[in-house]
């Protein structure tokens, strides 16, 4: 038996219940892990509210770290006692869980379990955004929304390490300071300032070649106005709500723009891609050029409080749910 958070009906944070449930033994290709730390991500909110529907009941959570405690048949290269970490599939808010062995990676010794749980999903997302969806060039200026968030702080640091100048939007002075300390050259308080005007001002009217927009509803259309002609809009999340449908002709009107809507899981579906992306992340963290800022910790059983903080924009950087 284990303890896990389970959702029986989609809805508010109160729908997450801490329950005792069976884990079972690993099937072919699977292992059982005893988790030591679990990552909190905005996708957990989309799962909980039903925006991304799940079969009920379900255990949210797509990121964690821990120790293998039982290995199923047909698993090569892992044994009980190995340290592992993962991003996806769902089922992470649990003390123990089953997981396909080919979704696991082994973090380097210098990276703690809490850091691994805080960074696997957000960090590989940043690798996808800066190195795979599009190659970031030294000397260019880019726009990052929610720059002091979990993805945001990693994105600012990694982009700066690649030689880009980062303009980042944030909602408070405290977040602006944090973003600045993490590679964001020009924080914009988008709750006070018109971010389109400010981006135009900072780029001598030219606009930026790429916008990374995870805020969605509140920023999506205005982000187009920050782009230079033939620029790329990377819409990769919707923290403020779902994006309304729009006519593709708008992309022509705004200057022959490109739009992509990537999700990490399609970029790490192949085991070789997962390994490549995890290695890129581990390397940049080990080099010290990207630091993983765990802004807050909550006990796993209190995941509802973590969701309330995330949805109220009260979190900074990454959040870890501690186990045990
Ligand atoms: P964050 O830590 O970035 O938290 C969300 C932030 O969004 C808030 O702190 C807030 O920053 C900003 N925000 C703006 N408007 C709202 C609103 N109405 N409600 C809540 N937050 C708002 O979360 P994560 O780092 O976990 O994720 C960031 C985004 O990236 C999410 O949209 C997530 O879905 C997406 N994502 C996408 C992936 C993919 O594969 N496509 C993978 C991983 C993440 P501020 O107060 O400064 O405005």
From TrEMBL:
One of its GO terms (molecular function) is mRNA 3'-UTR AU-rich region binding. It comes from the Bacteria. Pfam families: ADH_N, ADH_zinc_N. GO terms for cellular component: cytosol. Signal peptide: none annotated. The keyword NADP applies. This is Quinone oxidoreductase. Keywords: NADP, Oxidoreductase. Residues 11-321 form the Enoyl reductase (ER) domain.
């Amino acid at each position: 038996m284990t303890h896990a958070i389970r959702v029986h009906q989609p809805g508010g944070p109160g729908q997450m219940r801490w329950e005792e449930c069976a884990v079972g033994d690993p099937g072919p290709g699977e292992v059982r892990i005893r988790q030591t730390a679990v990552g909190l991500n905005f996708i957990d909110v989309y799962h909980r509210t039903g925006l991304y529907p799940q079969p009920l009941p379900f255990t949210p959570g797509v990121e964690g770290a821990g120790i293998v405690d039982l290995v199923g048949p047909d698993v090569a290269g892992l044994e009980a006692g190995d340290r592992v970490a993962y991003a996806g599939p769902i089922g992470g808010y649990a003390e123990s869980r089953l997981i396909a062995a080919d979704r696991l990676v082994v973090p380097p010794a210098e990276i703690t379990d809490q850091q691994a749980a805080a960074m696997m999903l957000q960090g590989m997302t940043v690798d996808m955004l800066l190195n795979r969806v599009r190659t970031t060039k030294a000397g260019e200026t880019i726009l990052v929304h929610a720059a002091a968030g979990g993805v945001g702080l990693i994105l600012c640091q990694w982009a700066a390490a690649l030689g880009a100048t980062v303009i980042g939007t944030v909602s408070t002075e405290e977040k602006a300071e944090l973003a600045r300390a993490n590679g964001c050259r020009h924080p914009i308080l988008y709750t006070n300032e018109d971010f389109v005007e400010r981006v135009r001002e900072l780029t001598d009217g030219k606009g930026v070649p790429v916008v990374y927009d995870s805020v969605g509803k509140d920023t999506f259309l205005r982000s187009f106005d920050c782009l230079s002609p033939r620029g790329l809009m990377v819409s990769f999340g919707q923290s403020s709500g779902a994006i309304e449908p729009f006519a593709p002709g708008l992309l022509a009107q705004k200057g022959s723009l490109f739009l992509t809507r990537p999700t990490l899981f399609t970029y790490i579906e192949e085991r070789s891609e997962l390994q490549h992306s995890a290695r890129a992340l581990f390397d940049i963290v080990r080099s010290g050029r990207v630091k993983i800022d765990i802004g807050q910790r909550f006990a796993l059983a209190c995941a509802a409080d973590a969701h309330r903080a995330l949805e109220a924009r009260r979190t900074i950087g990454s959040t870890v749910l501690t186990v045990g």
